[in-house]
Amino acid sequence: TRNLLGIKDLNEKDIQLIFETADNFKEVINRPIKKVPSLRDVTVANVFFENSTRTRLSFELAQKRLSADVINFSASSSSVSKGETLVDTVKNILAMKVDMIVMRHPYPGAGVFLSRHIHANIINAGDGANEHPTQALLDAFSIRERLGDVSGKKVVIVGDILHSRVALSNILCLQKLGAEVMVCGPTTLIPRYMEDLGVLVEHNLRKALEWCDIANMLRIQLERQDIKYFPSLREYTMMYGLNRALLDSLDKTITIMHPGPINRGVEITSDVADSEHSIILEQVENGVAIRMAVMYLLAQKH
Ligand code: CP
Fold first, then answer.
1. Backbone torsions φ then ψ of 80, nearest 5 degrees
2. pTM (2 decimals)?
3. pLDDT tens, residue by residue, 137-148
4. Which residues contribute to the annotated binding site for L-aspartate?
5. ipTM score of the complex?
6. Which DSSP string do the residues of 199-228 spell out, in sequence order?
């Protein structure tokens, strides 16, 4: 069985194939008739143990555009609250003749664990602070669309790197595509292993912006921090918040990204998030074509 559990399992050729497939699907979903019959014999379950807006809805839309049958499972309104385990939950869903599982889970490695117990395609839609592979694919696809080849581009990821699955998957994906990657944030939110990954580390936002072509602004993940963190949100905004005055003081333009959800006025001001240099909603749009491509390619290997 083939899965997409992390960018770590893909090589550059795999990523380029996903992009070329997504190019075709993007053209399809911009037509008046947005649907193709590619997955009409496939049933997919979206199994979410953690909240989501963009990922869950774009997976569902991608499945519908591919003519798959779809069921949606939200742990908070399920029998998980009565003590049913992850493996039992998914085995019961598969007993209903489901072929593919899209899973978001708060624990790192949940997808790998599940893959040892079931026989169905699994797509990781985010596992704790580990990986969020389809997010990284849609992010790199959006860079390619706006700026051309990802190779040689300088990308800084700013913010809460420590608790971010988006950061790790983006780092792995961008490096495989030949981009240079820097992380920027307070020492408390940057894990020590960043340098082992070949990533540049910078604690000064202005210097990071002077270096990069693209800035990907992350949210502080308060839900993953069980201790009082430093800096406070107010201090964080003063030191790492992206605002128009800071961007205007640079002698170049930078492409602005954000995976969402945005905390407007914390990591990014509204005028920057909504500016012509922001590709935030293009990222969301591209999420549908990328997820169509991933599911289509995995389903070919049944
Ligand atoms: N970017 C992202 O994963 O957003 P959601 O948590 O809303 O799915």
1. -60, -35
2. 0.97
3. 999 999 999 999
4. 82, 165, 219
5. 0.98
6. -EEES-HHHHHHH-SEEEEPPP-GGG--S-
pLDDT in tens, 151-161: 999 999 999 99
CA distance 202 to 53: 31
What class has domain 133-280? alpha beta
CA 260 to ligand 1 centroid distance, Å: 6
> How many alpha carbons fall within 13 Å on the CB side of residue 73?
23
Q: Distance between CA atoms of 59 and 290, rounded to whole angstroms?
A: 9
CATH topology of domain 7-131+284-299: Rossmann fold (3.40.50)
Residue 204 reports pLDDT greater than 70 = yes
Helix (H, G, I), strand (E, B) or coil at 140: helix
Binding site feature residues: 54-55, 82, 104, 132, 135, 165, 219, 260-261
Ligand 1 centroid vs 132 CA: distance in angstroms? 9
Confidence of residue 231 (pLDDT cuts 50, 70, 90): confident
C-alpha of residue 241 to centroid of ligand 1, in Å? 20
Instruction: Name the segment(s) of the chain with CATH classification 3.40.50.1370.
Output: 7-131+284-299, 133-280
261 cis-preceded (ω within 30 degrees of 0): yes
Contact by Cβ (8 Å): 210, 240: no
pLDDT single digits (tens) 74-89? 999 999 999 999 999 9
